[in-house]
């Protein structure tokens, strides 16, 4: 801990609550190390049910959705995303691909889907269908190494754009993602912050998303993380699955390349 206040005793008194909080969260995670005991497992089951249920104007399931390995092939698909899709001419992550499939296969209206993207923890809401289904798709890559393709020009472009956005300062507070996530040892209040340029750090983070957030009582995915970070920087809401959001996620995935997914994750 960097101490800018004279007096060792004061510094230790400030450091103690953070250490105790981190120890408490670590104990909680250890108690629920069994994945079947992680509440996120129930949300994954809910996601599977929704994924395989006929819904929308076309009364179809999502079982023919192509996540890059062929229609209906989910095993290992999330470990190879974000990636370029010819049918949308875009680089997409799991979440944005789900939206595309819901529109094309099931007949949902994209604007209607985006009216309710996330469970609101203030009202103890259940996870939305989109959150649950994303968790299910990701879970099919549990234990597999993250290896998104980087061959198509748009895949390479997405990673470069994501890193540029990571460093770009904007908004009323003149923040960038790098303000919080480009150095070791940073924290916000009691929350330790991941360094995207520390391989071990970024791998430990990316490998456990989607994650069950204890303080929210809900499963959260990386699109929610993008939205929440932008909100904390006092920026306008970032559009779900937008090229900007997917580009930052593509940059993260490239930095964490090679790590094996350990899902569902669990955070404070």
Question: Could you list some keywords that capture this structure?
Answer:
mainly alpha; two-stranded antiparallel sheet; 268 residues; three-stranded mixed sheet; disordered N terminus
Describe this structure as you would to a colleague.
This protein is mostly helical and 268 residues long. It has one domain (18-267): Orthogonal Bundle (Cytochrome Bc1 Complex, Chain D, domain 2). The protein has ten helices and seven strands. It has helices at residues 8-31, 40-51, 94-106, 110-113, 129-139, 153-167, 177-181, 199-206, 222-232, 243-255; strands spanning 83-85, 90-92, 187-188, 191-192, 211-213, 218-220, 265-267. The strands form three sheets. A three-stranded mixed β-sheet has the order 6-5-7. Helix 3 packs across helix 5 and helix 9 (222-232) packs across helix 10 (243-255). 35% of the residues are buried. Mean pLDDT is 89; it is low at 1-15.
């Amino acid at each position: 801990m960097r101490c800018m206040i004279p007096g060792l005793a004061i510094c230790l008194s400030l450091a103690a609550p953070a250490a105790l909080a981190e120890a408490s969260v670590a104990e909680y995670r250890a108690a629920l190390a069994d994945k079947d005991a992680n509440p996120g497992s129930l949300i994954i089951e809910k996601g599977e049910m929704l994924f395989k249920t006929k819904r929308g104007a076309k009364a179809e399931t999502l079982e023919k959705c192509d996540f890059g390995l062929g229609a209906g092939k989910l095993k290992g698909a999330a470990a190879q995303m974000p990636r370029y899709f010819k049918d949308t001419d875009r680089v997409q992550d799991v979440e944005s691909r789900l939206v595309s499939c819901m529109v094309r296969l099931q007949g949902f209206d994209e604007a209607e889907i985006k009216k309710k993207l996330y469970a609101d923890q203030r009202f103890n809401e259940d996870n939305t269908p989109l959150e649950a289904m994303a968790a299910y798709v990701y879970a099919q890559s549990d234990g597999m190494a993250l290896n998104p393709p980087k061959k198509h020009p748009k895949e390479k472009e997405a990673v470069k754009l994501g890193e540029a956005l990571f460093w770009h300062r904007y908004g009323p507070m003149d923040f960038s993602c790098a303000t919080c996530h480009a150095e070791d040892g940073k924290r916000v209040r009691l929350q330790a912050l991941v360094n995207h340029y520390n391989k071990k750090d970024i791998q430990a983070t990316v490998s456990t998303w989607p994650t069950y957030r204890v303080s929210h009582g809900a499963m959260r995915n990386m699109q929610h993380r993008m939205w929440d970070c932008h909100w904390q920087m006092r920026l306008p809401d970032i559009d779900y699955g937008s090229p900007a959001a997917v580009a930052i996620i593509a940059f993260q995935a490239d930095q964490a390349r090679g790590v094996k997914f350990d899902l569902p994750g669990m955070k404070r």
